[in-house]
Amino acid sequence: MSSNIVLEVSDLNKSFSGITAAHNLNVSIKKGEIVGIIGANGAGKTVFVNMITGYLKPTSGKIEFLGSDITGIEPRDATHIGLCRSFQISQVFMTMTVKENLMIAMSLAKKSGNQLLKPFQDEVISNECDKILDLYKIKDQKDLTVSTLSQGIRKLLDISMAVVGNPKVILLDEPTSGVSVEEKFGIMDIVISALKQTGTSVLFVEHDMEIVERYVDRVIAFYQGEIICDAPPKEALSNEKVIEYVLGH
Amino acid sequence: MFKDIFKDTSVRILITFMVVLCVSASLVLPEWMQNNFLYGLSRGLAVLGLMLLWRTNLISFGHALYYGFGAYAVALSQKYFGITDILLRFAIAVIAAGVLGFMLGFILKKYREIFFAMLSLAFSMVLYGLLAKAEFLGSTDGMSISPSTLLGMELTREYLLFLIAFFVICTAVSIQAYLRSTLGHLTTAISDNEIRVEYLGFSVEKAIHIKYVISACLAGGAGGLMAASLGQVDPDSMVNWNVSGELVFITIMSGSGNILAPFIGAIVFEFIRTYAFEWAPQAWQMIVGGTLLAIIFFFPGGIWSVLEKIFNQGKKKNVK
User: Fold this and answer.
1) In the prediction, which pLDDT does A120 show?
2) N or C: which end of chain B has fewer CB within 10 A?
3) Which pLDDT belongs to residue A197?
């Protein structure tokens, strides 16, 4: 594995009761690279993300992260080694405020047993959270209960909770799904610029080709559990197979 | 964990309540009420344990398992080792129930909702069956407990009440410190979204296991203190399913808003039962059931929500 590669997937397969959801997937992700994963519904994009982050165990194949085999890792262990994710439907704590959500994420990211036993309202943690809230432009909403907020704010919170531990790789599952057209570029600008600052590699699943074209360095296109194209955005979006099976023109 | 704990409003209210209760029980109130306070405070500890689980959306229909286990641990420690010291009795009850909770927790942490509730009940009924059949444990007649001592001196009911109030303060303050910690806040987080907690890098099962053991310790301690207060342990009054039902009943009646709520709820329950039995010996359960129905319909947040409303209204009036 090249020293520049942070994540490498080799011959990864996944089947559910005989139905193939992922077939011989081979992908390498470099440090700081931003990769878009595209494909029609059921193409295997989320299965791929779920296998990498431990939500699903692969039927066969290998996943290496920073040179270590992490195939079949538990989700919480993936987080500990620096492989985090956000979700298609924001997974946040609805009855808590924005800041409380982030403070829980931050306290758990400290990885020390002592931090868990310390009073939750810790000044150091609170200040660190304020910086992240500022970076993700959700500081104004910090004292509001999450259930009262828009999808866009929830998405930003979901992503900011995933990055508190400074992950090496983050997988974003449809970061703009359920977000209004007016909000989507604003959200992606905030997220991508924040992640670029930390040099985090990003893999994001996306249906919106405008977003893909604008933000990614590379596109991986899926069709029926297989990778049909892995190329820079312009080349990928003009690829015949991608046009036929993904874009549907 | 305990940093600034005595600046916490809930802790201050709890301590004030316990002091007022002990002073009034000792100087003003009739003697028979001391028993209701003794039983209410003891049982309140088990309710506090159930409240902890409830905050994670877990209800146990079998907490009498630990309540009874703690009580029988006290009885056995007296039978085989002659232990009557109240401090040792409390410690033995807490440790015995904690160890049992730790072991069963490996199974229960994997279950949620009705499966968690009923599995707890199943374990408690296994213990009930064993106790009812075991002649060396007194079978259905149970075992008697001699009066508690402290440093070799026999305790009066009054002093026993003071000591139980002291145990309640120590325990409830520790629970409040736990609830204020990040680990305690995971309580709400887990009930909100287990997947997110896992992806933040913490094991939900581990958090539930910890909480379950704490809850078992509290129920065990409650059983130990109840055994010391009653002077008797037997399967029907300590481990049977209706004992678990009463604990759940008091938990709902109390509400989960504050660490003091379980103790107020448990004391109110003792008084409702006493008066209901006095007024309608043949139908006292109807009065108790009716009370719970009224609370569920009119005050779903329990007695604590009513007290909170009264307190807040009083505050508003003062501001005006």
Assistant:
1) 79
2) C
3) 85
Please, are residues A157 and A92 in contact by the beta-carbon 8 Å criterion?
yes
Q: Tens of pLDDT along B131-166? A: 999 988 988 999 999 999 998 899 998 999 999 999
Q: How large is the average pLDDT for residues A78-95?
A: 88
Subunit contact B185:A79, Cβ cutoff 8 A: no
Using DSSP, state whether A60 is helix, strand or coil: strand
ipTM, interface predicted TM-score of the complex: 0.82
Q: Architecture of A5-247 per CATH?
A: 3-Layer(aba) Sandwich (3.40)
Q: Does B128 have pLDDT greater than 60?
A: yes
Please write the tens of the pLDDT for every residue from A214-223: 899 999 999 9
- Domain limits, chain A: 5-247
Return the higher-pLDDT residue of B244 and A114: B244
List, as one string, the DSSP characters of A117-155.
Answer: HSBSS-HHHHHHHHHHHHHTT-GGGTTSBGGGS-HHHHH
The number of beta carbons lying within 10 Å of the beta carbon of residue B17 is: 17
Q: What is the pLDDT of residue A249?
A: 63
> How far apart are alpha carbons B9 and A59 in whole angstroms?
54
Question: Is the Cβ–Cβ distance between B234 and B243 less than 8 Å?
Answer: no
Contact residues, chain A, for B195 at CB < 8 Å: 87, 91
Rounded to an integer, the average pLDDT of B88-95 is 97
| Chain B residues close to A120, C-beta within 8 Å | 180-182, 184-185
- Cβ-Cβ contacts under 8 Å between A and B: the total is 80
A15, two tokens: 């089947």
Q: Decide if B182 and A108 are in contact by the 8 Å CB cutoff.
A: yes
- End-to-end CA separation in angstroms for chain A: 38
* Residues of A with Cβ-Cβ distance to B3 under 8 angstroms: 118-119
Give counts: helices (H), strands (E), chain B.
14, 4
CB contact under 8 A, B202 and A108: yes
Spatial contact of A247 and A237, defined as CB atoms under 8 Å apart: yes
Q: How far apart are CA A227 and CA A109, in angstroms?
A: 34
Residues composing chain A: 249
Which domains does chain B possess? 5-252 (1.10.3470)
Rounded to two decimals, the pTM is: 0.87
Q: Write down the pLDDT at residue A198.
A: 85
Are A27 and A230 in contact by the 8 Å Cβ rule? The answer is: yes
Interface of A with B in 64-123 (CB under 8 A): 74-77, 79-80, 84-85, 87, 91-96, 100, 103-105, 107-109, 111, 115-121
| Cβ contact, residue pair A91, B199, below 8 Å | yes
- What is the predicted pLDDT for the residue at B83? 94
Contacts of A107 in chain B (CB under 8 A): 182
Helix or strand (DSSP H, E) at B157: helix B157-180
Model confidence pLDDT, tens digit, residues A130-166: 999 988 889 899 999 999 998 888 988 998 998 888 8
Sign, Cα dihedral of A31, A34, A39, A41 = positive
Chain centroid, CA A19 distance in Å: 25
